[in-house]
Amino acid sequence: MCLFIFILIVILIISLRFQRSIDVKYLTKDDLIKYGNVNGSRKRIPRLIHQTYETLNIPPIWNKSIQSILETNSKDFQYIQWTHKQMKFFVKKHEPKFYHQTYVHYKYEMQRIDSFRYVLMYHLGGIYLDMDNGCNYPLESLLTTIETLNPNSTFLVLFPQEDTFGIQTDFIVSTAKHPIFRQFISNLHSFNHYYILHHLTILLSAGPLFATFQERFFRQTNEEIVRILQNQVYKSIFWKTNGGSWNLILNDIHSYLNPIFLYQKDIEIDHFNSKMNSKDLDKKSIQISSVVFRQEDVENF
After folding, report:
1. Superkingdom of this entry's organism (predicted)?
2. Global confidence as pTM
3. 185-215 residues labelled b (16+ CB within 10 A) or e (exposed)
4. In the 8-state DSSP scheme, what is residue 49?
């Protein structure tokens, strides 16, 4: 049965490479130049940056990437870091059916991490960003561009374009309550199968391949916009550390599927008031300790 499902998925991937129900709405370099500094655009995307990790003790390999995010965006954004415990609490509170039916039954922790970001984007919105993404420029201009391109649309979402096929989910920008994430959440249970290989299972059940299928079949309207950030623009905004665990573990499925998706693991909550000492960044783990939300504070979300 799993082999049959896998074959169907491969056929679906091939067909999706060559067809789409509507034209893709890309966000280009020219769009950023033209609209990035526009004043007076109606803000609909929450100025929140979400990241996840198992604890507040961030591994040193991500110190520089996190520092770059804090330094380039502290003026305009609130930074929120989630632990696994808080992720579980948030999903249970906001999506109890999905939590009891699927979330707690996932075989791999990465499936919970992936699915959490969809629940998070639907209920809170803002920016989700993997730990291995370093930031070259302030993200405010990107959000301003998204909002200016569709000034009358209520729901906006942006995914990065994958090098070869589909979309990535290591960086997501969205308004709260975008219907595409309701579609994501509704279909997670149906995709929860074992697909021959460990890491392929993660990709197809809740990861970037799952997201690619959902994005391709989503019927956007003038009120519900989906944009794809062109790959070259994405790479100019961010730089990658070498610590993404998926750089290594995806090698065993590369012979099956072309797209390589860079991931990250896990995460807890904080604000930009945190005073980050840049000395010895490569030697010490970052500890975000200024204004950490207690568990009861998370209930407010």
Report:
1. Eukaryota
2. 0.81
3. beebeebbeebbeebbbbbbbbbbbbbbbbb
4. E
All structural domains of the chain with their residue ranges? 25-272+283-298
Using DSSP's 3-state secondary structure scheme, residue 62 falls into helix
Position 279 scores a pLDDT of 41
pLDDT at res. 300:
72
Matching residue, tokens 């995914």: 159
pLDDT at residue 23, as a whole number: 79
Asked if 68 contacts 280 with a C-beta cutoff of 8 angstroms, the reply is: no
Sign of torsion over alpha carbons 208, 119, 133, 236: positive
Q: Looking at 12-98, which runs of residues are DSSP E strands?
A: 26-27, 48-52, 57-58, 78-82
Q: What is the pLDDT of residue 238?
A: 97
Q: In this structure, is the dihedral angle defined by the CA atoms of residues 265, 268, 271 and 276, taken in order, positive or negative?
A: negative
The segments of the chain whose pLDDT lies below 70 read 1-22, 243-299
Q: Which residue has the tokens 């390589």?
A: 260
DSSP 115-183: HHHHHHHHHT-EEEE-TTEEESS-THHHHHHHHHHSTT-SEEEEEEBPSSSSB--SEEEE-TT-HHHHH
Which CATH code fits 25-272+283-298? 3.90.550
Q: For residue 78, give the DSSP letter.
A: E
For residue 23, give both structure tokens: 């034209």
Query: Whose CA is closest to 139, among 29, 31, 233, 237?
Result: 237
Q: What is the pLDDT of residue 285?
A: 46
Cβ burial 44-77 (10 Å sphere, 16+ → b, else e): bbbbbbbbbbbebebeeebbbbbbbbbebbbeeb
Residue matched to tokens 């950490």: 292
